[in-house]
Please model this.
Amino acid sequence: MKGLDVLGLDAWYGADHILRDVRMAIRPGTITAIIGPSGCGKSTLLRCFNRMHEEVPGARVAGSVMFDGWDMYAPSSDPVDVRRHIGMVFQRPNPFPTMTVLENVVAGLRLQGRYDRATMLEAAEQAMRSAGIWDELKDRLDRPGGRLSGGQQQRVCIARALAVRPEMLLMDEPASALDPVSTQQIEDTVQELKRSITIVIVTHNMQQAARVSDYTAFMLREDPRRPSVLVEYDETRHMFTNPSHKRTEAYITGRFG
Amino acid sequence: MTLEIAPRRFRSIRLRKLKSDVLLGMLWLAGLIAVVPLLLIVGYVLAKGVPAINAAFFTETAPPPAVPGGGMAQAFVGTGMIVGIATLISVPLGVLTAIYLSEFGRGRLAAGVRFVAEILLSTPSIVAGAFIWALVVVAMHSFSALAGAIALTVLMWPIITRATEETLRLVPTELREGALALGSPRWKMVLRIVLPTAGSGILTAVMLAVARGFGETAPILLTSLGNDFMNADPLQPTDAVPLRVYNYAQSAFPQWQTLAWGGAITLLAAVLVLSIGARILSDRQRRRLG
Model:
């Protein structure tokens, strides 16, 4: 399994400086949670980890992120290549509405130009098992992807991200649009996945961070005119019981944010 | 919980209800007034044109003056050929331009293309006809269906481009990002995710453009000229239904005038079918994306 070394990362939207000098090491085979109040750049940081940030017009990144020794922001690195190694699940479930459940799950393989039918079915089943949705949907593979419940849609999206066999999975508040039961299922899935893949999860829910993650990063934008910074990054149990910074303590005890 | 309603308050509610009813009635009336002209046109065209509709109308060519019978088969074939060629040129051109504008175009070039499409969209159709006359008819020394089709392309291309661009922009960003995050190259994301999602919206754009093409008279007049006889050679002067309507409507012969009304019915029917089809498709599209 592979991890990330973030060696000083800055990000902008147009003239707005969002992130300043983020430095952290995502350890292989762990779950890392990124927490912080709204607008603190959690999602931006996550989107810098697979070069999705630059898809927004006017967005810019400086610095370097090493993926298992590979500088993914080097001029010779292709963002398409980066995203084939580092998958992503979004806040709102986004199954492709023109495709069936099965087509959705194998969409990544097709978009990457792989078409062999037998291996695709196999990959689909495996990915759907990993996402904990195979038993539920194996008889409904030809249903339109948009007709499922929100929780099922999100797990189809997780399966879709897993089917291309990424080495790392980024999850941007994957349960914030879901009900408590679906949230629980997603959290269980995340725990299962940890055995085979490195996970970074953004969440606004501190209990969720405490429940699922091994490491937690706390981000904060104290002054709206200045960029966010990474305040503290530590083992989750340490951070939630004995935070080093006053701001972290204030946030996790619910005194602001 | 008990509600006390004072008589005074009661009166004001009645007054308010009355005002609401009056205003609502006026809105209904406004809607009715808007629909009346359409109903009158359809009714009048039907009344005048139905006598012209028979088998000969669709199978025979132009009759000599004062000879009963005859039809406008050559005009149907001609319109089919001209609009067909125009569609074959303007659909790929328009859809590709729209993809460029919505998915790839940034900066001055895109702004320029969008501006040109905007200008063409509001260009009087006779100007398009005159332009293609100077460019194609004069150069080829002949009026032709091809020149007519190119003139229609000038009108249909911007319609398809703008309407398709609007539809492509309706495809949610989340779907585009979903595809890109799977390691899809941008062109494949457009081809396999954006275009299928926008599918029926693009078809709607095409139908609206084709409906416009069916009804245009001035550009065809200047480029395709018209023809009393059946012609299937796109390089020869060719007849078209609106041209025939235009010519016959000005004639002094009652049976030519009847044929003109018959032509008007078929044009109206074609435009109605296309517009209603476009409407159904775009409703379906909205439901799918909503």
Q: What stands out?
A: Chain A has one domain: 4-252. The mean pLDDT of chain A is 94.
